[in-house]
Amino acid sequence: MDELVFFINRVLISGTVLGSIYALGAIGVTLIFGILRFAHFAHGDMMTMGAFIAFLLASVCTALGIVTPIPSGFLVLPVAMAITAVIALGLDKGFYAPLRKRGAKPVTLLIASIGVTLILQGLLRLIFGSGTRSFYQSEPKEIFRIDMSALGGSRPITITEPQVLMIVVTALLVLGLHFFLTRSRLGKAMRAMADNADLAQVSGINTALVVRVTWIVAGALACVAGTMLALDVALMPDLAFNIILPIFAAAIVGGLGHVYGAIVGGFLIAFAETLSVFNWTSVLRPLNDLLPEGMALPANLALVPTEYKLTVAFVILVITLLARPTGIFKGASS
Amino acid sequence: MALIELKHVVGGYSSVPILNGVDIAIEQSDIGVIVGPNGAGKSTTLKAIFGLLKVTGGTIEFGGENIANSLPDKLVPKGLSFVPQEKNVFTSLSVEENLEMGAFTRKDDYAQTMAWVYEMFPVLAEKRRQPAGELSGGQRQMVAMGRALMSKPSLLMLDEPSAGLSPRYVIEIFETIVRVNKEGVGILMVEQNARQALAFASKGFVLASGRNRFTGTGAELIADPEVAKSFLGG
Amino acid sequence: MSGEAQAKRIDLANPTVRAIVLFSAMFVLILAVGFVQGAANSGLLLTQALAYALIALGLNIQWGYGGLFNFAVMGFMMVGGASVVFVSFPVNALFWDSEGPVMLGRALLAFLAGVLLVWGARHSHRLGVRGGWKTALLVLAWFIAYVVYRSQIDPAAAYIESTAGFVGGLGLNPILGWLFGGLVAAVIAYIVGRISLGLRTDYLAIATIGISEIIRALLKNMDWLTRGTMTASPMPWPVNLPQDYQAQGIPISESFVYARFGFFALLLAIFIVVFFFVQRAYGGPWGRMMRAIRDNHIAAGSMGKNVTGRQLELFVFGSVLIGMGGAILVTFNQIFDPAGYQPINHTFMIWVMVIVGGAGNNWGVLLGAVLIYIVWIISDPLAQAIFLNLSSWSQSLGWGAIPEIDSRALQMRVFVLGIIITVALRYAPRGLLPEVVKREV
């Protein structure tokens, strides 16, 4: 029983949290690719920027003495999302729109997004320094313990309050996005444009508006993903740059341009990473009793050493690219 | 006054003009058919009207105003609609969503128009929840036409609607076009099946090298021995 | 006034005139920096800039000549760096006297056995294994190969790390190490290219950035090979070190000038040779074919050119220069620190050099590399000066000083780099010295 609890704590819960973060980031990447046809490398930094905005707002809240039952990081989220979305629009207007207007190739936009990455990272470090911050300087992390003694376990399932909130918020956002894309006129127009941009224009769809909505959605979700990552780990300027790779892997595995694919891809990558660095000995330890005398499971039975966690996403990416380049759901091919 | 009138339109991609003076005039009651050899500028004419490439000379009057170089999102609300030849449905969207996209520019309730489209293409009503990419070529063409009709256009432009369809579907599509026209929508189309299309056209335009070579009613053009010899394959 | 008239007479549209004007400006800038920073620092800056120019030339072969997206510049630089450590670092007797070499030999055997196993599984269709079974067999083969290799390398690594620290080097001349760095980079580029060059640009960008990160993760954690984050230092030079000059009784400050310019002279000689050949290749039939492939994939392919094969050549050649450049930098800086490599300082900065200089134009890339490196270096002190002024101003207003000016000013470099690339893409997308396409008569 304890082994199962350990598995739930270490794999199920942290995998779900990580998957939520990856999924929200990958949705943004996949939307931007679907509508604008370029890989937006600055997405990780948009996430970090969103996290810093949320952090600033949360600090203001704390300074004003506002005390709420939920952590301030979540309380300020809607405002931070709005601000990040506006900045995302500004980035498009300032850096990408002029290139599109000139008819630049998608690869030029990709390189431009590297420029935006550098600008954002430089600015963030300039303003906030390169140190590490935490959302929990003033508030304690509340921990829920689900007692397992009734089922014969000696250790409880533990989950922190932010983890619960992260999973709930992700579920709500994904649900909201689903309704937006399938029920609203603008959401359908977004899918239409991702499907066939020329025909969308011919149909009279206001493509400029769709592009704006894309940046708003991508920016808002990036803010949530970044804030969650900061809540889960810690806040630092190169926070999200390190996870841009698994996010792109998630988007590609799910099929670039495919929103639901990005969600599935996000969780797939997250669980693959968590499972591959998971020490199986801790779960299989009871088997030691069955093994003959003198034989025991090695102390560490992880598939991949923790230092190489990041490479797992990449290996999955390479396999996907080789075996099924369009992703598990057919993504945009051109 | 004509519904749409092109006066000596010159235009093309970048600096090389493809159209060197095209004149076309269509009433709302007309079915206009543009025929001509490959590279004559037939599809280019439709694209020029729809703002998809640059018009550098001449005028395009629609409903009394010059619409040259206006973009589709301005033209569709004015009553102009276009069905491209290829990739003319949103494959991942359902049939109904495809139709809704045709009504994107409309602010009013379009339920009636959708009912009208379904009445005209009953098969689409059956498959309304199915992704358009799963439909057959002929059915896709219907989705494409339905989508274009959702904006309640006064002029519907079609680029080779019969391309790639089996003969049975070609007749069906042409019959549908005539029916749409009877409902009060002007038609301007480009066709490879020239003889068949001119047979029901009220106006025909033979283009060559980006210019009008012959203009007349469909019947006149079919009867003209020179047109028949050079452009209709004898 | 007369200067303005003069400027009007200089025809900047003429590529040669433009190049002469811009290179003159570059030399003036170098002299200005040299005047402010002193001879020793200029030697440092120029040598590093030239090494970066060599790397940028490598990327130019890939992106400028071939239109191949390579975001793995950092990875190839690290490969070069680790190679030069292996070849030129002093011999570690402790390792060679221990069980280490035998254990590594066993690990190598296990690795080869794994390769054989996977190869066998890939060709299992000849034995009649098909479809899903073949895939399953392939997965199983990979898994077994992985487990077998890990079962040998893990104890070997642990043993070496606990007894000898790391394998050390071979104690050979660093120049051999640079060549070896190029060779190892070539081998890796070949494998990477075989896997990923068929991909579309966006996928290639992500695939290469991933490869780069994997190389970094490996070299950072393979302590037995590279000493990992404990860094391998000091690396020997192929020319006299400052200490050597000091031993001859030359004052410390001058010894640095002599040593750095000695290294610079050696590097310049190498650079001139490489540049000459790269330039020749560009103008020759090989370069023409490459440009044809870059500008029109499909047409070149349909004319019977082996597009993927040619692109693989470009990718490998470019990576050789990148690997060599990375090795030279490690030798010059006398330290290999896997933790010091960042995509921003390495991959992206090289990209900015190539784009700003002019992709496809070797002279432009040389110009871009030197200019961007100078900008990168002087952004820090300039920003510091600005911040100090701002700080004293804000203090005088009673707002207090700007905290942590040092670390903040350092970040200005990244910001400036970002501004430069975005401005360049918008206003001069073909670079300062655009590619001159020779028209064939």
Automatic annotation (TrEMBL), chain A:
This is Branched-chain amino acid ABC transporter permease. The chain crosses the membrane at residues 12-36, 48-68, 74-95, 107-128, 164-181, 209-233, 239-256, 263-281, 301-323. GO terms for molecular function: L-isoleucine transmembrane transporter activity; L-leucine transmembrane transporter activity; L-phenylalanine transmembrane transporter activity; L-valine transmembrane transporter activity. It is found in: Cell membrane. The keyword Nucleotidyltransferase does not apply. It is a multi-pass membrane protein. Keywords: Amino-acid transport, Cell inner membrane, Cell membrane, Membrane, Transmembrane, Transmembrane helix, Transport. One of its GO terms (cellular component) is plasma membrane. Belongs to the binding-protein-dependent transport system permease family. LivHM subfamily. Pfam families: BPD_transp_2. GO terms for biological process: D-alanine transmembrane transport; L-alanine transport; L-isoleucine import across plasma membrane.
Automatic annotation (TrEMBL), chain B:
CDD domains: ABC_TM1139_LivF_branched. It comes from the Bacteria. InterPro entries: AAA+_ATPase, ABC_transporter-like_ATP-bd, ABC_transporter-like_CS, BCAA_Transport_ATP-bd_LivF, P-loop_NTPase. Keywords: Amino-acid transport, ATP-binding, Nucleotide-binding, Transport. Belongs to the ABC transporter superfamily. The keyword Transport applies. It comes from Devosia limi DSM 17137. Residues 4-234 form the ABC transporter domain. This is Amino acid/amide ABC transporter ATP-binding protein 2, HAAT family (TC 3.A.1.4.-). One of its GO terms (biological process) is L-amino acid transport. One of its GO terms (molecular function) is branched-chain amino acid transmembrane transporter activity.
UniProtKB/TrEMBL annotation, chain C:
One of its GO terms (molecular function) is branched-chain amino acid transmembrane transporter activity. CDD domains: TM_PBP1_LivM_like. Signal peptide: none annotated. GO terms for cellular component: plasma membrane. It is a multi-pass membrane protein. InterPro entries: ABC_transp_permease, LivM-like. The chain crosses the membrane at residues 12-36, 42-61, 68-89, 101-119, 131-149, 169-191, 261-282, 314-336, 348-375, 408-428. It is found in: Cell membrane. Keywords: Cell membrane, Membrane, Transmembrane, Transmembrane helix. It comes from the Bacteria. Pfam families: BPD_transp_2. This is Branched-chain amino acid ABC transporter permease. The lineage of its organism: Bacteria, Pseudomonadati, Pseudomonadota, Alphaproteobacteria, Hyphomicrobiales.
